[in-house]
Specification:
The structure holds three protein chains of three kinds. Chain B is mainly α. In chain B, 63% of the residues lie in helices and 1% in strands. In chain C, 47% of the residues lie in helices and 0% in strands. Classes of the chains: A mainly alpha, B mainly alpha, C mainly alpha. The structure holds protoporphyrin IX containing FE and copper (II) ion. Protoporphyrin IX containing FE binds next to helix 8, helix 10, helix 11, helix 12 and helix 13 of chain B.
Chain lengths: 234, 580, 296
Amino acid sequence: MATIDAPNPDIQATGAQTHPLYWKNRGFAHHFRNADEQFDACKLGMWLFLSTEILLFAGIFCAYAIFRMLYPEAWAAGSHHLDWRFGGLNTVILLLSSWTVASGVRAAQLGNNAALIRNLVITLICAGLFVFIKLYFEYIPKLSAGKAPGTFFSYPYAHDPHEPLWWSIYYIGTGIHALHVLIGAGLLIWVLVRAIRYEAYGPTEYTMVENSALYWHLVDLIWIFLFPLLYLIH
Amino acid sequence: MTTAETTHDHHDEGSYLTPKYGVMGTIWDWMTTVDHKKIGVMYLFAVLFMFFLGGVAALAVRLELLEPVRVAADGTITGQLFGPANPESIATGNNIFNRLFTLHGAIMVFMFIIPSVPAALGNFFLPLMLGAKDVAFPRLNLFSWYIYVVGSLFGVFSIILGGVDTGWTFYTPYSTTTDADHWRVLLMVLAAFVLGFSSILTGLNFIVTTHKLRAPGMGWFDMPLFIWAIYATSIIQVLATPVIGITLLLLIFERLFKVGIFDPALGGDPVLYQHFFWFYSHPVVYVMILPGMGIISEILSVHARKHIFGYRAIAFSSLGIAAVSFIVWGHHMFTAMGELASTIFSALTFLVAIPTAIKMFNWIATLYKGSIAINTPMLYALSFLFLFSIGGLTGLPLGALATDLHLHDSYFVVAHFHYTMMGGTVIAFLGGIHHWWPKMFGRMYNERAGMIGCVLVFIGFNLTFMTQFFLGTQGMPRRYASYIDEFQTLHVLSTYGSWILLAGFLVHLFNFIHSLVAGPKAPPNPWGGLTLEWETESPPIEHNFHHEVLVQHGPYDFDTVVPPHCDEREFPLPETPASH
Amino acid sequence: MSHSIDDVHIPNPDFDPTDPHATGQGHHGHHIISAPTLMIVLLLLLFFTALTVGLSRGEVWVQDTFDIILPNWLNIIIAMSISVIKATLVGAYFMGLRFDKALNSIIMLVCLAAVVCFLFFTAIDLGNRDSVSAVRATVPTPGGTGEGLDKTADRFSTALSPRISTNRMPITEFRRTERLNELALKQAEDHGRIEPNDEDKAAGEAEFWRIYYQGYVDKGKHPHRHEHDEHNYFTKLPDHFAHHDDDALEPVSRPDVAGVADSSPNFSFRRTGKTPGLFSEGSEHASDHAAPASDH
Ligand code: HEM
Ligand SMILES: [Cu+2]
């Protein structure tokens, strides 16, 4: 956040290590008393931000809960159109990526840039896979069969008159979640680029890694709830 | 209060207002600044501009209501302000009226009152009062100002394109179907959505600042009550605003794609929208009032030279209000809900009155035996006590299920929330601006003009809105462009009141301009305040304090501490300091 | 820059693992979570994922094998409990809450409390419309009223959705009718007719229901849920399938209490005297139809 780039003249000039973004060259903004305080502040800010994200999704969960309560049959019928195997696979993918990103933070804390890069790359591959499965195996076939939200619904064999509502919740919920996957991936790409180019993260400077990782875990957390709610009803 | 020498001092710095570059350079400097003081001032001007826009709409609404729309036997129309005066155009006139009150409500709520105190005064004074150099995330702070501006531009743009007639509440299914041939509603909804982000980021920033950047020696209970209020406000902003985000997003989807979640035509439920909306919008009324309450705590103790009565009670009641505000939203939808939920929400609503009353009694006790200075901030604080009592007490019949079924959607509700939002927040905001004006701009304002303005505002306000309580109980519904003849006297009085209000605001405006241009230079601590912002220069220097601050006394220890930069003869300590 | 936050202080860069931030002051260390811990947590998470899928499959199996229908809440309780465990694991270890400042956990808890309030009170309202007086029950038109979907302006519409006129039918029914017509037309074409006759229509319908139940046939299952389901619109269709007739239910109607029968969600009635149904004999009758079929 407010960590600013300033070259440290004492550092020897070797490769990335002269760059102001190299982790040993980083300081803290003047309005904090020390780097620790700044780190804590950034992390506190991130947790507050995560709670806003949770409340954002709370709206979707609330609509889901109300309609499931009112129209349980529609929810069961709608869920039958989803294949739990794709949902399950995506769950595994996200859990794996959560693990790699947590390991990435660990690598940064230990000053192991190579491991950080490796973990971030695996995480990003997982993100790509997740979105690919979602789009290619789920959204596209379903939409082309007319299993679409609201007035787009054109599937003639609905088993319950409230099925379009189910699809609305399904697409909005998973869609906003997928958007968060993309945003999270964007953050991680940024971290990755800085790690590769400047060795920007190390034991004294890994705020950005930590916070992007927190965001990524949040995406995982939401999915942990979405998965059974959407795929495992009967 | 003493200050300690540390390594990073800022001795030779000038005021934050001193321009250091040429004209363009200064503008650029302000537009890219990360200084919380400049951002606070930028917010101040932005919200005051929005207040002006919303105010113009309000005056127009009142003007239309000066006379009911009457159709004479020969077909001539009187009393219609907007649109050509022929019978066919009544609908047009009503349509314009609907757009005007929506414009007024949406601007005042989303663009003026929510950011008013926290974003303008909060930004300026929160770090100062904490003894910090800046807020925790200065760039985020600037970013949130830009988001605010972009959001407001969306709103203004929507108005230029012809406005919105949904009311500020955007109830479905009307809001998803009206003006189907235009983007206006989408733009306005988008505006509220974007403004939400600004609000969230400000709140987040303040919470972190309060936790992490308190000066050494300042414990939680050494913080000024304004900080407590802002802190509680920020909690609400962070927790409630995302819900309006998703609500408005769903509304946008609903309009664009007809997804049907809120649309009975597709099996959805419009009452669900109301739940979503009020889950945010009830807590947000406390986003509006809590900072105002914080200002009142400051003004009363400083200008009565008394230790605030019941410090902890006031501090905790702020948090209490924040907590309770999340479980009472249903009182806005008594007519839409089932009996069980209505009854529960009605009972819970009464809880809100408790922390509010605690504050009220503590303030009054603070005044007891104080040496009260009658000046503009104090007059405003006293007005607040009077007006907000009425506002809060009239909330109770609205919160009671049985009476609300009669009063709901009537002028009684309009009067209630104006007594709370305007009689509460706006009055406190004006008091706060006067109280901190010397600090912010380094100039004194004209005290007499300020007091005249305050009296005009007070009279005008009561004339405008007291009448509306009576109209409401007699059955005048809100959001109507016309009314039966029997209501005219009260409506006329109300409209006259709005003109007196305008006069009051104009007096303030000229007073402020005069002060900026020719006001006498302000001393660092004109009122003898003890909170940290009075410790530094007026206006504060670039990095707020010359030395790192070390807090050694409480913010309200008027009995024992001579205020910084003040003469003991001017602000004498009581004869027997330890007697109580 | 005038007021610059870029005025930074460079800490001693020499890395000391016990003092990762190298500030030397007010220091409390940053917990580095060990690799085995992370691995164990991952395995636990995968295990719980398998468990939740397994249990949900198990419920289906129990239903099919013993030909019973498990209550609706069972599925939610099981799935959500496991999700909560998984979320706690992610929060505590991957996100490090367990080793972090308590404040961050408190923030999460407060946030969750707000979520709970939101869900709880909204559900209280929408799930209990009829619990004090039955007349307030939400009896929505199944699938929606279908009204006004084609209501768009003459010039252009900002809605990107298709403009359909469903003739006041819910959209599902509308799409079904569309397809029935199509199928009938196809039958007519096959027989060289332009207008489908009754025979074509019947054949088209037969084809429709064949596809409709194909999913169950494929899985070798009997679509029992639909038989017992009074809220399934399609069970109320006349004589397509014999087994539907057996279970044919009375049509849902509003309670036959004075003044109530002729009111509808669109037309209110005069409410004078006692709340109808609350104290009278009719109360039982009034409430049993209105509760949504939440379990079977
Ligand atoms: C003392 C505690 C308060 C209570 C018990 C209370 C109660 C209520 C109730 C029951 C209503 C709904 C009336 C109806 O629509 O039928 C209402 C409306 C309203 N209140 Fe309050 N209120 C209180 C304080 C406040 C405060 C402090 C504010 C703002 C600063 C406020 C702003 C509003 C607004 C804006 C509305 C109307 C919203 C609309 O329908 O457009 N209230 N209040
Ligand atoms: Cu309220």
